[in-house]
């Protein structure tokens, strides 16, 4: 008996020691296991599709959910609820209209230009039911860029929201010359040659289109085209396959979302975050979605409380805008438990928790056209994802040294890239293989090829150049540092705009900062400049800002110029616009905004006058 008790005690002590050892040496072990189990389960489903050639798409899942839970609310929009059956039947009507007219056939591409509303989904699903691909057009692009989008994706039909028809007036003749049919979500139209859709939907039957119309034999078949915002040139049409759609739809589920969740989507549906992750994820769970026409910081928490929101989506500066709202009572009195998105800065992350409670912030990383995704399933502040030994077996990526002067990866004597060490910043490259194909951009093999790097580490390999500078620490957490195009070089050093913007954001009177580099005559590289917005009821304090950058930033990273703006120009997905600011430089005679210059002698940021500007460009003022 004593021997048995001794063995039992030893066994318990051993288990306890293993547990303590695991906590100390592998603190994220079980979280990694649970997360990877979900990833593998979903991956096996994809592999089964390949073997059986029976691809079950996101649309198939929606049709299945509409049959399984027809009366459950799918969309809440402006206070009105739409069930899964409502959206299914109305999308059937869209399909029946175009089926009866015979204007589209399986494999065609139809362009969609609409703001967030339930009919966006009905048109999208209706066209998919006919076997068509849908091109989501960015509602912020105009004229020449819009015409360019049609050339990219080959669409011959455009469906436009009734509130956006006016923006087409300039290019309607060009569209008609190119034989592109324009359909407006209206009952009648005063524009010659523009067809109306709402009146025809009223008469159309809600009968389902035969399922064989939408059947596809390959996960690689394109189902959508999602355009980049075109901040650095004309928009590019990223090819979205069924494979990418299915992966996006698994996002909420991978983070632990359930059918009981209510998802808040304030982002534009033409963007992959809202459409692939938001709508696709809601469908995958069989959950409910609150769809906003446009993000409103002042209405955000009111909506969350009114509709019992449990998950919301964010991107870029959305959380920062919420933190900048005036404080109110009961800010933590809500049911939101999780937020999914990307681009959340560390300072905003901590402030958001302080203001609104310990909401689980689920950062993820992945571009619209990319073939790699990172997910921060642990919730470590500042990380966009987490890797480990097993993840690296499934998904091949590398962080390689980057030459900022030549603006290209650094090559060794053998002509290959070199990996960076743990803790060092490197360019993220994602391996292209059968498990992670790269579909590129529609209408331009040149743009697709430009994103690819060959013979990276060995002869014959191929990687996608993400254009993102990342760092992986000793615990395998991955953090975003900057975009290659955003990082600039000054005084022989690389300046990460994200890091500088975070430092400026810690100053109490600065609400928002957009950091970039400007050319200075006679100087190599680009000098740092920041466009900032001053908080309401605050004033610019040059001395306080000088002390901040002096204390927290190295000399080469301190912005030499400050530009105060009333509002920050952003894309439809809240990304900062930089190229106009870069082009306008720092000349006070051509810029109406207040400008300041970092004066080391005065130990302050002082007004940038014409005289000071002249001394800088002439070389009299040393930088």
From TrEMBL:
GO cellular component annotations of the record: endoplasmic reticulum membrane; plasma membrane
Predominant location category: membrane
A Pfam family annotated for this UniProt entry: AMP-binding
Enzyme Commission number(s) from the entry: 6.2.1.3
Catalyzed chemical reaction(s): tetracosanoate + ATP + CoA = tetracosanoyl-CoA + AMP + diphosphate; a long-chain fatty acid + ATP + CoA = a long-chain fatty acyl-CoA + AMP + diphosphate; a very long-chain fatty acid + ATP + CoA = a very long-chain fatty acyl-CoA + AMP + diphosphate
Biological processes annotated in GO: long-chain fatty acid import into cell
Alphabetized UniProt keyword annotations: Cell membrane, Fatty acid metabolism, Ligase, Lipid metabolism, Lipid transport, Membrane, Nucleotide-binding, Transmembrane, Transmembrane helix, Transport
Record-annotated AMP-dependent synthetase/ligase domain positions: 63-385
GO molecular function, a single term: long-chain fatty acid-CoA ligase activity
SUPFAM superfamilies, per the entry: Acetyl-CoA synthetase-like
Highest taxon, organism lineage: Eukaryota
Membrane topology: Multi-pass membrane protein
Subcellular location: Cell membrane
InterPro entries with a match to the protein in the record: AMP-bd_C_sf, AMP-binding_CS, AMP-dep_synth/lig_dom, ANL_N_sf
Family recorded in the similarity comment: Belongs to the ATP-dependent AMP-binding enzyme family.
Protein name: long-chain-fatty-acid--CoA ligase
Classification of source organism: Eukaryota, Metazoa, Chordata, Craniata, Vertebrata
